[in-house]
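Researcher: We're teaching a course module on how sequence relates to structure. For the next exercise, students receive a sequence and then see the predicted structure as tokens, so they can try to spot secondary structure elements on their own. Here is the exercise chain.
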Amino acid sequence: MTTQDRTSDGFSDLAQWMDAEADPAAESPEDARRRRRRRRTVWIVALVLVAIVVGVPGGYVAWALNAPLPPPTGSAQAPAVPVGGAVTLALPSDGASAISVSGAEAYLGPDASGIWATSGTDEARPIGSISKLITALVVLDAKPLASAEDPGPTLTFDEADNDLYDKYYVMGATIAAMPTGSAMSQHDALATMLLPSASNYAEAVSTWAFGSQGAFVSATRRWLAENGMTGTTIVEPTGINPRNSSTKTDLLTLGRLAAAQPVIAQLAATNSLTVPGAGVLHNTNDLLGESGITGLKTGNLGENSYNLLYTATLDAGPAGPLSVTGVSLGGFSHDSVNAGVLALLASIRGGFHDVTVATAGQRIGTVRTEWGATAAIVIDEDRSLYTWSDTPITVSLRIPALDAPGAAGPVLIAPEDGAVIGTITWTAGPNTVESDVRIEGTIEQPSEWWRLTHPGQLGNG
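Model: And here is the predicted structure for the students to work with:
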């Protein structure tokens, strides 16, 4: 019998076996599908055996072992976007407060430099010696100094000025020596009024600038109206009268005006100063230099009427220095006001943080082949994003070889371990970070047996 006869007999036997394998009339649809799959497999094996036996020149084996492979496919999905820890501002629980922050609008929003956060009502409350800031600004508006170092004109104190010492002593106000016939520069008189908060100096300086207290009060009312401080009332220059009152909104305006006035800004930031005739002056704001606080003025009238108008410069890392203006009104005590301000500033500073958005080698997808080989799609580098509180973070994954980000599609004909195939980007507020996306793992080539037994999947590369 020839080889051809043997082969023909083999096919005949094989066909008979497949036809006899099941009774088509009795088998279910699923059995029929399984029978057809077995039949195709047997035919493929038979063809391979025939090709091997017959050895057709340029035939099946040579073609199958060299035919192009189908390209790998892949799918990837951007990882879940992390959320930074939400920050609760530690606003004071007693009285009323307000705060504005400039220099970080890209993080905090465009309204941060206005009134960013508040607590309590905006009713007018007694402001005590914060009144002296208004007195100083009104005096400097009428009698400006050329610079923060300019001493200005000389004030000579007469007997009426000396009597102010006794007047305010009896009232229990803060006072400083003012002997009859003594003299002092305008700059030093303002310093004595602001640092130790000497009430006799507030009245003496304002009378010197305007000629009388009536003229001073009238000028102050005009100045308040010009600066939009319609919720503020000033009836005398010291603040000892509780009718001197203001709202937290107006006081934020006052804080910005005072911080922008060079003489007042410098004096408000000074812990102590020696003034001829007055001696060593100590600032009543004992928070100066703590937690970035740079000013401005205390104003206390006793229990439940402790006030602080303050400025601060906070280090917020990559967000840059923050310029803060704040006010705390109607606090229970001096210590409670100070503690509340420090806690609020700490909560602002602590609200800026790095959020980890990815780690090197983090798997976000898979490359797979028809023959079962796989490799991972991973993020190449550790990445974090500097942001404020729980600012939303957006993520964008771009892998050009895929049909679309996050969808399955052709990746590479022969992806290699470490090959960069795309990028992933995260954005929050003004900041954006990016990392390469790469292949991790080697795509193994199919075995010869797979090639020989999967002719329908070859030739499509």
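Model: If you want an answer key for the exercise: DSSP finds 13 helices and 20 strands in the chain. Residues 1-22 have pLDDT under 50 and may be disordered.
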